[in-house]
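Project outcomes to date are best conveyed with an example. Our students and postdoctoral researchers have been running inverse folding experiments weekly, and each run begins with a structure described purely in tokens. The record below, which covers 326 residues, was selected by the lab manager from last quarter's runs and is presented without edits.
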């Protein structure tokens, strides 16, 4: 059964990034962009089905909405069960990772490995879709290893769309090398081919096709939106987070917040986290790049990098802000 996937505005989204886009990062990003769709780090089906403490993987703040849960796995029944768990926790979308090239996912036959098994992916998406009443989407690449011609990715999308009814495909405009390149190298070395993603949109006009990869400026976004339905930001949103506010302004007309206002918006969140036994570093590590390209950006980064004491709270962040704003 085809579910309504048009309830979410996917014109601007932030990629799921392992060790980066945890709940604290997503809360911070939401202050910078009220509209962007944010994604969790990939959560494996094994982590949810074989762990008593699933709150560690799934807990999030109401302020994060709209927020999507990305799952990693390749067993349809397991994915369906985990999709239902995600829906019950309140996520707005469930996304299947078909693009990660790490050895870990290869050993468990999911991530980018799934590109070579479109029928299995279709079975997975179909099972997930039947289990939930929220959109189920796919994030993938344009090829894998030597299988990188257009017909390959076209067949992949076509198989999944026709069988499962999936209408949202997020395309990292690079292929993945499963052997010989690290996950980090896979984000930069394979040639980026936006034209492949654009052609997919032409061939599947009934689908939402989003493009991901090396989108660095609002001008890049505007160009891509002429050909695709949305853009997904990766490293730029994390390493230079204030750029996210600039994308937000360009697309939605939202007034640019000051960097000071963003920092101040984190105070209560940090204090609550510390009061609950958390460490301030869990949060401020995501804020290191907020003053990048500013006069005292390096100083800001140095001060926040030294915040490791579990008893530290927002007072220290206020001091750091006063230091860089002098």
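After processing, the design step wrote out the following sequence:
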């Amino acid at each position: 059964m085809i579910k309504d996937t048009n309830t979410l505005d996917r014109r601007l989204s932030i990629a799921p990034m392992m060790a980066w886009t945890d709940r604290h990062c997503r809360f911070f990003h939401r202050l910078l962009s009220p509209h962007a769709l944010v994604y969790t780090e990939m959560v494996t089906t094994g982590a949810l089905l074989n762990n008593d403490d699933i709150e560690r993987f799934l807990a999030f703040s109401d302020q994060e909405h709209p927020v999507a849960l990305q799952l990693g796995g390749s067993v349809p029944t397991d994915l369906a069960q985990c999709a239902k768990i995600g829906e019950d926790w309140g996520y707005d979308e469930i996304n299947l990772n078909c693009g990660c090239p790490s050895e870990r996912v290869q050993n468990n036959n999911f991530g980018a490995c799934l590109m070579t098994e479109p029928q299995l992916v279709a079975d997975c998406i179909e099972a997930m879709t039947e289990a939930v009443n929220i959109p189920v989407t796919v994030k993938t690449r344009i090829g894998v290893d030597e299988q990188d011609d257009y017909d390959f990715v076209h067949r992949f999308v076509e198989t999944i769309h026709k069988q499962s009814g999936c209408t949202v495909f997020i395309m990292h405009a690079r292929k993945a090398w499963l052997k010989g390149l690290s996950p980090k190298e896979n984000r930069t070395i394979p040639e980026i081919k936006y034209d492949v993603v654009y052609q997919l949109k032409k061939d599947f006009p009934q689908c939402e096709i989003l493009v991901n990869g090396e989108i660095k400026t609002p001008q890049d976004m505007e160009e891509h939106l002429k050909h695709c339905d949305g853009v997904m930001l990766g490293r730029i949103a994390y390493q230079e987070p204030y750029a996210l506010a600039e994308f937000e302004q360009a697309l939605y007309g939202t007034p640019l917040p000051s960097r000071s206002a963003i920092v101040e918006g984190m105070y209560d969140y940090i204090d609550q986290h510390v009061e609950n036994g958390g460490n301030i570093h869990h949060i401020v590590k995501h804020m290191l790049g907020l003053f990048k390209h500013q006069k005292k950006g390096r100083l800001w980064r140095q001060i926040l990098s030294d915040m490791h004491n579990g008893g530290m709270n927002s007072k220290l962040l206020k001091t750091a802000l006063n230091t860089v704003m002098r």
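The chain has a mean pLDDT of 94. The first strand starts at residue 12 and ends at 14. The training component of this project remains on track.
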